[in-house]
Amino acid sequence: MGAGNRRDFLKLIAASAPSLALAPPRAWGSLAPSHWRTPATIERYVDPLPILRPLPPIETRGKTVRYRVRMVEFEKQLHAQLPPTRLWGYEGQYPGPVLEARRGTPVEVEWKNDLPLRHIFPIDPNIHGAMPPAPQVRTVPHLHGSRTPSDSDGLPEKWFTPGQSSLYRYPNQQQAATLWYHDHALGITRLNVYAGLSGFYLLRDEQELDMNLPSGPYEIPLLLQDRTLDSEGRLLYAPTNEDGTTAPQGVWAPEFFGELPVVNGAIYPFLEVEPRRYRLRVLNGANSRFFSLYLNLAQRPTDIPSIVTFHQIGSDGGLLASPAEIDRLLLGPAERADLLVDFSALEGKIVTLSNNASSPYPGWAMLVQQHPPLSELMQFRVTLPLSRMGKSFSLPSPVSVPRFDPSQSVATRDFVLTERMDAQGKSLGVRINNKDYDDPLTELPRLDSLEKWRFINMTDDAHPMHVHLVQFQILERRGFDTGAFVQGRLQFVGAPRPPAPSESGWKDTAVVNPADVLTILVRFEGYTGRYVYHCHMLEHEDNDMMRPYEVVSAAQEQPHAAGA
Predict the structure, then answer these.
(1) Which one-letter DSSP state was computed for residue 246?
(2) Which residues contact 460 (CB under 8 A, 6 or more apart)?
(3) Do 6-206 and 406-551 agree at the fold level?
(4) Cα separation of 515 and 481, whole Å?
(5) Residue range 277-294: average pLDDT?
(6) 77, 117, 300, 354: least buried by Cβ within 10 Å?
């Protein structure tokens, strides 16, 4: 696996061939090749939104539900006016199929790598984890937001190569939530996810199923991403430096912002809906882009917005205590939101899912925006007749969400986020506490203990910080004096700011803004073993803005070796 040598890899090349058995026929659409357009000239809202379907299990063995999920290369049109695009996907789909699970019912997934031996994109061999003799194509799935044993967590160094597979076990001993799965291979996560390796994992429980929430055709998962295509419809991965300049091909750079919005694998799609409530399970699956989302009735993005309010009923790790009525929603990469949108009073209208987040976010240090915004993502057309078969759905009643008591915290840990720059002012990577990924372990929380983790942001970017294994709670955000901090003093500025109602529930990813301290309360429940925490901007994660930690039992006196 991760420690494979050149000889093993050569044997693999000789013995393996990429399996394309799952790849669908080339879908040429309604246009002849001579009538295809370039990405810059396509029309918006000509393709229906792809509806993501659940994957049937291969068997149920005792109380355990078993799946087999293969990673393959295939072609798919992302827009009817563009030629097919070469992609990677789970079960030959982009995004991958929905995996549905029930609380208390274990799931086993055999993840099988049937990808070719050559990567779609050039690989920077100077990135930790991607240096030779590491093979080009390596994968390891991570079920993001899941409380999972370490050996099934998807640690980035536990990758496997084409022709290999790995069996992961998910106990599902946590409340209903919008989880997702994606690749996590060390040094190339940004490339593998950009190629298409991501999908939804919806965990349900009896409490959620009894709440009269929209279901079936009225529950829509939405995976938001951004992509850039060349004139031939091929995926183009062109990351940029902080000054907006594009890095040379195959060279790491700290950010990527695609030129086109992609929702459920389609560029500028539309969805016809009935005049009733819908449940939208929204995931920001972009590499670097933040989305500040709103529902707009205005006809053009340059018009004064006419905003539709909606309710958020859940965040990363499950339901909020009460629905939060909002008209805008900020999602950093990897954050999720469970929304109820009522189209009842909008019959015959078109509602555009819009975005006004700057790129990079928050962009406070920028005089001129370096990357054009993706101001529109998709349309909802309230044009379907009200189905007699569809029942009416209500807002959920308040539920109990126990709050952690900060006074019960047994430790406070500080994580300073800084960026290394070269003599020309270009990024060499972002670090946590000025450490690389494979530096010795420094965080050894005890099982079932409660800790305060403080993320102190000394960079110009907002960072969505993700902790594996746990669902945490945001305690507060607070400004601080960066000049005083350079001199060794953490000097706060202003009063503590509690989390907004829409992020007051369970989280596994939370945004820390520049010159801010984000404080979270984390209880390390479930399992001992090795896990990681990192920024979920994939370009940052790949260049060592990620650190391991190890949950230890009371009986353990010595941590495992850092390379274990």
Answers:
(1) B
(2) 242, 360, 364, 365, 419, 514
(3) yes
(4) 7
(5) 98
(6) 300
DSSP state of 382: -
Strand partners, 380: 271, 351
Distance between CA atoms of 236 and 552, rounded to whole angstroms?
43
Give the Cβ contact number of residue 344 at 10 Å: 12
**Domain ranges across the chain:** 6-206, 216-381, 406-551
Identify the CATH class of 216-381.
Answer: mainly beta
Written as six digits, the tokens of 102 are 């029930």
273 in Cβ contact with 346 (< 8 Å): no
**Residue 401 in this model has a pLDDT that exceeds 90:** yes
Fold for the domain defined by 6-206: Immunoglobulin-like (2.60.40)
Residue type, 139: T
pLDDT at 144 over 90: yes
- The span from the CA of 310 to the CA of 222, in Å, is 16
Nearest to 247 by CA among 126, 111, 164, 368: 126
pLDDT of residue 556: 74
Q: Prior bond to 360 cis, omega within 30? A: yes
- Give the Cβ contact number of residue 385 at 10 Å: 8
CA distance linking residue 252 with residue 231, whole number of Å:
23
Which fold would CATH assign to domain 406-551?
Answer: Immunoglobulin-like (2.60.40)
The pLDDT of residue 31: 56
Average pLDDT estimate for 77-81: 97
- Identify whether the C-beta of residue 559 lies closer than 8 Å to the C-beta of residue 444: yes
Return the minimum-mean-pLDDT range out of 89-93, 160-164, 177-181, 553-557: 553-557
Residue 28 has pLDDT above 90, yes or no: no
Torsion angle, alpha carbons of 472, 476, 482, 485, to 10: -70
Tell me the Cα Rg of the chain: 23
Which tokens in the block code for residue 72? Answer: 């393959």
- In this prediction, residues 153-160 reach a mean pLDDT of 98
* Gap between the Cα atoms of 80 and 210, Å rounded: 40
Alpha-carbon span 94 to 262, nearest angstrom? 11
Q: pLDDT category, 561, cuts 50, 70, 90?
A: very low
Bridge partners (DSSP) listed for residue 477: 497, 518
In DSSP terms, 267 is beta-bridged to: 262
CA distance 173 to 178: 14
